Amino acid sequence: MENEKLKAAIEAVLFTMGDSVEISHLAAALNTEPEKIRELLKEMKERYEEEDRGIRLLELESAYQLCTKTEYYDYLIRIAKQPKKYVLTEVLLETLSIVAYKQPVTRLEIEKIRGVKCDHAVNKLIEYGLIEEVGRLDAPGRPLLFGTTEDFLRSFGVSSTEDLPRISPEQIEDFKEEAEEEIQQKIHKK
């Protein structure tokens, strides 16, 4: 199949699926090598950006998805229901950060880092579709492991968790000092 026909087929599949589709699945469906599909997707992504179209090709780790460009959301809202806007409190953001940087992670590990119970925060993040169960730890009790979802990547505008900002050793030391001060303040209040 020639490149333009392959691109049209890829576009048709991505449009119809609505969700992201892994490169390996596209390659199998189109009977083409994954590297060829990756090359064509890159060309398609560049073309969508150059032509100032209403859609864009979003890369999510080893998968791709067609979606609306954010600058056109206002027009969509006039026709469709307004999308739910979730409020991420400080507690939810802290918990989400721990999962994003430490995944796969158990509730107990999150609680050790935060110093408080995290059941509510984990349940809310699952409800919002930002984290999910990704397996079980091979340890007594077989606790659940949590990781981020594609919705997390989409929401924070990153292609992979590798794109998340890295924390410098100096920042880590500052965070440790702040945490120690908080602990000392709580002890003195009692």
Element layout with pairings:
Blueprint: H1 3-17, E1 21-22, H2 23-30, H3 34-50, E2 55-60, E3 63-68, H4 73-79, H5 90-102, H6 107-114, H7 119-127, E4 131-136, E5 144-148, H8 150-156, H9 169-189
Antiparallel strand pairs: 1-3, 2-3, 4-5
Helix pairs in contact: 1-3, 2-3, 5-7
Describe the structure.
- The chain starts with a helix and ends with a helix.
- The protein has a 3-stranded antiparallel β-sheet. Strands 4-5 form a two-stranded antiparallel sheet.
- By secondary structure, the chain is α+β, with helices and mostly antiparallel strands.
- Helix 2 packs across helix 3.
- The protein folds into 2 domains: 77 residues, Arc Repressor Mutant, subunit A, CATH 1.10.10.10; 100 residues, Orthogonal Bundle (Arc Repressor Mutant, subunit A), CATH 1.10.10.10.
- It is elongated and about 70 Å long.
- Strand 4 and strand 5 form a beta hairpin.
- The protein contains 9 helices and 5 strands, in the order H-E-H-H-E-E-H-H-H-H-E-E-H-H.
- The longest helix is centred in the last third of the chain and has 21 residues.
